[in-house]
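Sanity check

After download, print the first record. It should look like this:
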Amino acid sequence: MNLKEVSELRRRWRPEKSAVSRIYGCFVNSSKEIICDLDEPLGRMPQEEAEKYLALLKKVLSGTLGKNLIDIVFSTQQVMDGEEHRLLTAMRSSELKDGSIRQAFYQKVISSLDLGESKYLILLACDAYDVPHRGKDDALQSDASETVFNYLLCAVCPIKEGKVELGYFPGDNEFHCAASQTVAAPELGFLFPAFDDRAANIYNALFYSRKPGELHQEFIDAVFHIDPPMSAAEQRETFQSALCGTLEGACSMEVVQSVHDYLRQRIQEHKESRDPEPLAVTAGEVSGVLRNCGVPEERVEAFQTACGQSFGEGALTPANLIDAKHFAVKTADATIQVDPERSYLVEARIIDGRRYLLVPADESVEVNGLGVRIAAAKDGGETT
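Expected structure tokens:
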């Protein structure tokens, strides 16, 4: 799925837009027991309550592709006779109306998901999207529908315990101390099937994680039974290890600056182009940057091999490899931070046998907020 397709579905999740008729789910306590089953018609809810439920489910379609939103790919064998895919398909085809199928799904989630001691709410809803035709001008034509996209959303929302407060209980006509329990934003969830080329793709799902560094691999394995994808943090760590481990002595300041600048520029160009497709680069492109920096060919080939072993044949996601908004150089005693667009200002040099990091000080210089003057050199010596 691309960004435009995700956004198109997100716009559905308002009471006046969606075709959601019922909200399903269950409340799971810290002992992994279902203490409440949810099966409520959306149309009979107060508007504010209905909007809250839809907003929670809509959150599963938010975040950055490749970071919070991860593409789940099923094998042909799984689609043909895989237990996990069969359960998801049954949920979709029954429009979640079969209670036994929902219970089977709840138990699969509860037995695998690790949220510590947290209570949580599993939410499910099914929508039928009458997909409008998109004209040559990219405008949607609602009166020219081509297909109906039937899909389901799942959101797993932690329950937050509030402070114990004194409050009025109308049923008892008394005041009592109690702690409020509120439903927080989803920790994880998914869309099934994927909405690729504005149509159902039963070979894919879209998984959501609020924290890109915590993908809840146990949930992915239980619900989808695929090899767990790398989180954004794991991708960055693996890329850095490949770069440093294979280049060895050739991993200089210039090389790292050049790789960072190349990836940062690609991210910026992609953002300005408004291309809905996720940005991707290949290990070969990064290798070209290394060659331009004079890295020996055997080191470049070693880098490509390491990337192939770690990432496979797939392309790399630049936003997961670097922080495009941050550039810092650290030593044991100091940290230099500069605008990523001006990383070239930091130089590494060896002077009189000692290694230095140099930063030009042509403009104003401040120390703890105080403007200071750098004195000119005397008698042709170094400045002070």
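If your output differs, re-run the checksum step. Summary of this record's structure: The chain has three domains: 3-223, 232-325, 328-372.
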